[in-house]
């Protein structure tokens, strides 16, 4: 079974996923795609000898090039690991219940457009939340509204900064995302 990872940023989640599936008996990360040609995630992919593919908005939304690239690698599942663009409908239809995303909060709280990265943790601090966490969910037509596969919380201390919260949330992501991906694939692959 082949996975493609889409990422826009540092790719620490992508790193953990490539480590987890390195030498896996039946699941491989076959491709890493990004919308940013200088994204550090591309270097992480190179370290694992995983091919990469960079695209811009026009390519992603006005051509079938990304779908063709995925098909050429016979990709079965897509993992969004810090990918900040909306997934185009045709791609969602090609990969029904096969696109897995991670969100650094307890959806439906702090979800929706524009709520990503530090903005989420700043909003959590602003609201004086006593907990936050991560949500791993499927992508469907409605942004951040796909079925939840996994959710886990962590405590927010009164004096926690957004950076401190980001550290705790990243730790949860790195611990749980690879395993949740594996479980979903083993449960649903044909
Ligand atoms: C993570 O916090 C994830 O929840 C969000 O984007 C961030 C990606 O971080 N979707 P990294 O690039 O994997 O380090």
TrEMBL record:
Residues involved in N(1)-(5-phospho-beta-D-ribosyl)glycinamide binding: 11-13
Key word Transferase present: yes
Domain Formyl transferase N-terminal residue range list: 3-181
InterPro entries from the UniProt entry: Formyl_transf_N, Formyl_transf_N_sf, GART
Site, Raises pKa of active site His: residue positions: 144
UniProt keyword Transferase, yes or no: yes
Pfam families: Formyl_trans_N (PF00551)
Binding-site list for (6R)-10-formyltetrahydrofolate: 101
Enzyme class: transferase
Catalytically driven reaction(s): N(1)-(5-phospho-beta-D-ribosyl)glycinamide + (6R)-10-formyltetrahydrofolate = N(2)-formyl-N(1)-(5-phospho-beta-D-ribosyl)glycinamide + (6S)-5,6,7,8-tetrahydrofolate + H(+)
Enzyme Commission number, as recorded: 2.1.2.2
Entry GO CC: cytosol
GO molecular function terms attached to this record: phosphoribosylglycinamide formyltransferase activity
Keywords tagged on the record: Purine biosynthesis, Transferase
GO biological-process terms attached to the record: 'de novo' IMP biosynthetic process
Active site (UniProt): 103
Family: Belongs to the GART family.
Record function comment: Catalyzes the transfer of a formyl group from 10-formyltetrahydrofolate to 5-phospho-ribosyl-glycinamide (GAR), producing 5-phospho-ribosyl-N-formylglycinamide (FGAR) and tetrahydrofolate.
Name of the featured protein: Phosphoribosylglycinamide formyltransferase
Organism the protein comes from: Xanthocytophaga agilis
